[in-house]
Structure formats: C-alpha cells, structure tokens
C-alpha cells in the first residue's frame, strides 16, 4: 500500500476523500447512517433533513470536519475528524498537542468485499497523518463494538481505558504515526 496525493492505493483499489457537501450528500448519507449496520452511529431514526442539518452544523464548526470517502472515485465511506480539546472528549482525558479525534463509517453493501473495511480505516488514518501536525489519532468506540475495536488494533490503536460519554460507555484508544506505520506498512 502506498499513499499518493490523491489517496491510498491498495490491492482493493484507490481510496481518497473529498469535502462533504451536506445539501448534495444528505440523501446518500441518510441511507448510510440509518442502515441497521450503522447502529453505533446513533442516527437510526434520523430523517433526511436531520442528516443534512447535522452535517451543515459540522461544516460550520471549526473544530469538527466531515469528508466523503471514495473508493475508485465512488462514495463508499464517511470520515469525521475533530479536535478532542473542543469536541467529543473535552474533560474526559488529557489531550496532547497533535491529537486528532476520528470517526468513520463504511457504506452498507449487499456484496461485502473481504478486507474492505480495514482498507477504509487504513485510508482514513493515512489521510489524517498526511497532515504533519497530526501526531496521534484518538478514537472512542462503544465498548460493545468489538468489530471496530479489532479493526482499530489491526491498524495500530492501543486501548487505554473505558470512559463514560453522555451517549455511551467508550473505549478510549490512541494511535501514533509510528504505531500506524508499524501495523500497516503504509509509507507516510
């Protein structure tokens, strides 16, 4: 796997991102975030206008960003980054300079491809670490989401401790640039 200015090239294809356009992308995102496989995204009962409103809110927030992920140019995943000093984890851990919070969601499909979700999280982290100021990625998956915890560990995340967030009990985990490279072999 190698990174390029346009994304991450893998055996499964090329993964990249583009800015999210809430009015244009809301219907697509609605189909993703309300799918049963997206239960941990906590938007199961959202209406299309709720999804658009949420992503307009994120677009206006200087500490939270959403990007549409592409696989060979086709929308395939959603990624969000946030500044954990100001969003999500404020007061729940001791942030370090260069920390970047991250969420990702793979689009539901009727034809799963083995290794696809791992390729997506690898592409997401490669994109985050493409910014030299990003030194460590912070995630806080639900403690019951064992599948994403296994994926996180496969790309270099180290679980630290459980934390209580308003909406869930979460597993605080960190991944440095070095841990990511060691786990994935991606040359940053």
Helix share, percent: 25-40%
* SSE pattern, N- to C-terminal: EEEHHEEEHEHEEH
Q: Mean pLDDT, rounded to whole units?
A: 89
Based on CA atoms alone, the radius of gyration comes out at 16 Å
Number of strands: 9
Strand content: 25-35%
Structural class: alpha+beta
Overall 3D geometry? globular
Strands of the widest sheet, in order across it, are 1-2-3-4-5-6-7-9-8
Report the biggest beta sheet as strand number plus sense, adding barrel if it closes: 9 strands, mixed
Protein name: Lysine N-acyltransferase MbtK
Pathway: Siderophore biosynthesis; mycobactin biosynthesis
Organism: Streptomyces hirsutus
Pfam families: Acetyltransf_8
Describe it for me?
The chain is α+β, with helices and mostly antiparallel strands. Helix 1 (22-33) crosses helix 2. The protein is built from five helices and nine strands, in the order βββααβββαβαββα. The chain has a nine-stranded mixed beta sheet. It has helices at 22-33, 48-59, 116-129, 146-154, 177-184, and strands at residues 2-4, 7-10, 13-19, 64-71, 74-82, 99-106, 136-139, 158-165, 168-176.
């Amino acid at each position: 796997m190698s990174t390029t200015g346009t994304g991450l090239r893998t055996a499964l294809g090329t993964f990249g991102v583009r800015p999210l356009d809430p009015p244009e992308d809301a219907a697509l995102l609605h189909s993703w975030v309300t799918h049963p496989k997206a239960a941990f995204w906590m938007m199961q009962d959202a209406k299309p206008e709720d999804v658009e409103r949420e992503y307009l809110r994120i677009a206006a927030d200087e500490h939270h960003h959403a990007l549409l992920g592409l696989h060979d140019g086709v929308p395939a995943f959603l990624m969000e980054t946030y500044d954990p000093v100001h969003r999500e984890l404020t007061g729940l851990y001791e942030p370090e300079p260069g920390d970047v919070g991250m969420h990702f969601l793979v689009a539901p499909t009727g034809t799963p491809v083995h290794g696809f979700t791992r390729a997506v999280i690898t592409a997401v982290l490669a994109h985050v670490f493409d910014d030299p100021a990003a030194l460590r990625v912070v995630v806080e998956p639900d403690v019951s989401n064992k599948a994403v915890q296994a994926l996180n560990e496969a790309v270099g995340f180290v679980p630290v401790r459980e934390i209580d967030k308003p909406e869930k009990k979460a597993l605080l985990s960190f991944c440095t640039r070095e841990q990511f490279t060691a786990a994935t072999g991606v040359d940053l």
